[in-house]
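Before surveying the methods themselves, we first show a specimen of the format, giving the amino acid sequence and backbone structure tokens:

:::
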Amino acid sequence: QVQLVESGGGLVQPGGSLRLSCAASGSSFRIYVMGWYRQAPGKQRELVAATLSGGSTNYAASVKGRFTISRDSAKNTVYLQMNSLKPEDTAVYYCNVRGALGYAPPTDYWGQGTQVTVSS
């Protein structure tokens, strides 16, 4: 009923750029928050960036000035533009959406994850 489709991951050299996309679909699906998490091997999953329906944004300190989150509300799509990538950005990136399906209370939905590898 709710599907999050991620795309845009891949292998990139340090200093390069990638753009991740996540499209959410589902009838009667009300979205409150859209964001991106990442998880590197041996580390906890961390919030990278998030955007609220009102347009406010939040970034992890490690990516401020390099990453930009944006959303297209009409398409229920969130993007993560990643510039000046560093090897420490290497991780599996997960799209996260907090929303409500039908009359159910809000809950979290997750994308399948996309691998981002920054290496020379």
User: Anything to note?
Assistant: DSSP finds no helices and eleven strands in the chain.
